[in-house]
Design brief:
The chain has 289 residues and is mainly α. The protein is 63% helix and 2% strand. It is built from ten helices and two strands; from the N terminus they run E-E-H-H-H-H-H-H-H-H-H-H. The structure holds fe (ii) ion (2 copies). The site of one fe (ii) ion has 5 residues, from helix 4.
């Protein structure tokens, strides 16, 4: 299954031609038969992505709250509409990732422990971090997810790595990350966050991601009783080769250019292809899963 409901789209001339922010509800078919190593049949790559998926529900709640702290300062209805659509998209991502994460339990992933871990530290950051840094962290995290989205949508060979259901799921998330990539960034001006605070917030995010991400990733690896075999090496190398580490790194680094704006990076061709094969132009209300 895939998109079962669409919500009104937010449009703006701040967005590139052909792009709007449209929240869509993603509904899974069955996750029952999903393979344990759903990414390239690689234990390491799958647990790395599982770690991200586990961080997404508490992480996206942080993103929503960081943006909401500045929402009241926006009076332009069009800009308000973009923020509302961003919040709805991230809320829908949280629900879908919660469902996906629960399905990992059958493979021995301690979903509750890891979710609680991320919630605890992200909640701590939310209580103690200045609003400006929170927003800076979110703007940077949105750049990270949009960078990942380029790699996923603009490379047809990714289909070789994912199972069909996980590919649809991650592609849907990638599409919406691209659509709202500049929402938090555009609030930086409103919050009077200049280049140095923006870069400082990005460095804080990188530090937290490496620290907490590594802890969870190593625990997922340790808890998995399936031994690493020799096959892991070609499988992991295949994932890295297909994902294209260098183009992704180059795009990631663009954030550190003074004067950078997320829409300096043109939307990938794959976005249009996704629209062509997934959008009918009709608004969907809930349809049976
Ligand atoms: Fe998201
Ligand atoms: Fe996002």
């Amino acid at each position: 299954m895939t998109i079962t409901r669409t919500f009104p789209k937010a449009e703006s001339d701040k967005l590139p031609e052909g792009i709007s922010i449209q929240p869509r509800k993603f509904t899974f078919g069955s996750l029952e038969s999903e393979p344990k190593y759903w990414l390239g049949n690689s234990k390491i790559a799958t647990h790395f992505e599982n770690m991200f998926s586990l961080a997404i529900p508490p992480g996206e709640r942080f993103f929503i709250r960081s943006v909401q702290r500045y929402e009241d300062q926006i009076t332009d209805p069009e800009h308000k509409g973009l923020i509302k659509a961003f919040i709805l998209q991230e809320g829908l991502h949280r629900s879908a990732h919660n469902e996906f994460n629960s399905s990992l339990e059958k493979h021995g992933v301690n979903v509750e422990r890891e979710t609680t871990f991320f919630e605890k530290y992200i909640g701590f950051a939310e209580r103690h971090m200045p609003s400006k840094i929170m927003l800076g962290v979110t703007a940077f995290a949105e750049h990270l997810t949009a960078t990942g989205a380029h790699s996923l949508l603009d490379n047809p060979r990714q289909a070789e790595l994912y199972s069909p259901e996980t590919l649809k799921f991650w592609q849907w998330h990638a599409v919406e990350e691209l659509e709202h990539r500049a929402v938090a960034f555009d609030l930086l001006k409103v919050a009077k966050i200049g280049y140095f605070s923006r870069v400082f917030s990005a460095l804080v995010s990188i530090y937290a991601l490496i620290l907490f991400g590594t802890i969870v990733f190593l625990r997922l690896m340790r808890d998995d009783p399936t031994k690493l075999t020799r096959k892991e090496i070609p499988n992991l190398l295949n994932v890295l080769r297909i994902m294209g580490v260098w183009p992704t790194t180059k795009m990631f680094l663009q954030y550190f250019k003074p004067g950078f704006h997320p829409w300096d990076i043109a939307p990938p061709q794959g976005l249009e292809n996704w629209y062509a094969s997934n959008e009918t132009g009709d608004e969907l209300t809930d349809t049976p899963a």
